[in-house]
């Protein structure tokens, strides 16, 4: 029984095992597991929750969903006591999305006899999105060695960036960022970032692939940009920038249309957005299988 809370806890060998499992699921391999899983989602989600649910069911696992304000967390019960309750009820695993950073977490994970799978904890980690993006890039480019990846947008609030950058670095990619100064963390270089481009057009010229991120308005405590219009003009994927892209672009979703990306470009021939969603299912099946069966 394993858990996956942060990509920083797994080395290249374990990541390779997960990617290999995901490939085999994509090719149609079947696997049957037994047990019950809780999907505890305290923040909104469409693709992560539904793909985890579909992944569980495809693997033969029963799912029980707990959403937002519907649990006793709303009455002040702690996250740990909530997990202990699921443990006492005989659940095999808990897949959680929470509005707080789960760190440190070793004591929590070690004190429980169930697998914990992080589906996004505030701005900290989103391991299955990072793995999905790694898998998608590998399919598109073959290898990440020397691949120049640019993240654009609200880097400060992005758990997708924190998970993806660590994984891409492990596989030899160069990662740079671009965004308003107010959305670049002061400690950006601890994430192995090569360069911070104030001018996104210079970043696009440098990059082989660009990952636009969502402006996370719900997490911004103050106005970090003069207006959404000016943000789009300065950093968004416009038609002019789309023409200049050397390769593909990605976005983890959900997209703020005409703020992150021009509406008409979302599903263009350079977009990997639908492939990211498709691959998310196989990666989540692989992570669940890895947690439950890998020694
Ligand atoms: N990428 C992602 O986490 O999307 P959802 O919020 O829809 O799950």
UniProtKB/TrEMBL annotation:
List, alphabetically, the PROSITE patterns matched. Answer: CARBAMOYLTRANSFERASE
Task: State a single Gene Ontology molecular function.
Answer: amino acid binding
Aspartate/ornithine carbamoyltransferase carbamoyl-P binding domain boundaries: 2-139
Q: Which Pfam families match?
A: OTCace (PF00185), OTCace_N (PF02729)
Q: Does the keyword Signal apply?
A: no
Task: Reply yes or no: does the keyword Cytoplasm apply.
Answer: no
- UniProt family annotation: Belongs to the aspartate/ornithine carbamoyltransferase superfamily.
For this protein, the record's NCBIfam families field holds: PRK00856.1
In its UniProt record, which GO terms are filed under biological process? 'de novo' UMP biosynthetic process; amino acid metabolic process
Cellular component (GO) terms are:
cytosol
The protein's UniProt keywords, in alphabetical order, are: Transferase
**Where in the numbering of this chain does the Aspartate/ornithine carbamoyltransferase Asp/Orn-binding domain appear?**
145-290
Q: Name the source's superkingdom.
A: Bacteria
Q: Which PANTHER family does the record associate with it? A: ASPARTATE CARBAMOYLTRANSFERASE, ORNITHINE CARBAMOYLTRANSFERASE, MITOCHONDRIAL
Could you tell me which InterPro entries the record lists for this protein? Asp/Orn_carbamoyltranf_P-bd (IPR006132), Asp/Orn_carbamoylTrfase (IPR006130), Asp/Orn_carbamoylTrfase_sf (IPR036901), Asp_carbamoyltransf_Asp/Orn-bd (IPR006131)
Specify the protein name: Aspartate carbamoyltransferase
């Amino acid at each position: 029984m394993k858990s996956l809370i942060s990509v920083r806890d797994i080395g290249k060998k374990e990541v390779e095992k997960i990617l290999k499992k995901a490939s085999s699921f994509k090719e149609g391999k079947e696997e049957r597991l037994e047990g019950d899983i809780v999907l505890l989602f305290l923040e909104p989600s469409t693709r992560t929750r539904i793909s985890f649910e579909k992944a569980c069911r495809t693997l033969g696992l029963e799912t029980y969903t707990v959403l937002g304000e519907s649990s006793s967390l709303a009455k002040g019960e702690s996250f740990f006591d909530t997990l202990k309750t699921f443990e006492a009820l005989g659940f095999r695993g808990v897949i959680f999305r929470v509005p707080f950073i789960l760190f440190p977490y070793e004591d929590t994970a070690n004190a429980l006899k169930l697998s914990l799978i992080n589906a996004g904890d505030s701005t900290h980690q989103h391991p299955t999105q990072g793995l999905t993006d790694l898998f998608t890039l590998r399919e598109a480019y073959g290898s990440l060695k020397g691949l120049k990846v640019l993240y654009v947008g609200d880097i400060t609030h992005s758990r997708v960036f924190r998970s993806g950058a660590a994984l891409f670095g492990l596989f030899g990619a160069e990662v740079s960022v671009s965004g308003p100064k107010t959305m670049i963390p002061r400690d950006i270089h601890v994430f192995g970032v090569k360069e911070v481009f104030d001018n996104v057009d210079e970043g696009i010229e440098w990059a082989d692939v660009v990952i636009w991120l969502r402006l996370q308005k719900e997490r911004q405590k103050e106005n970090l940009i003069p207006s959404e219009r000016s943000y789009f003009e300065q950093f968004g994927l416009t038609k002019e920038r789309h023409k200049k892209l050397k390769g593909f672009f990605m976005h983890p979703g959900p997209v703020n249309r005409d703020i992150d990306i021009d509406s008409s470009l979302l599903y263009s021939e350079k977009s990997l957005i639908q492939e990211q969603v498709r691959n998310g299912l196989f990666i989540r099946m692989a992570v669940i299988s890895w947690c439950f069966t890998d020694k």
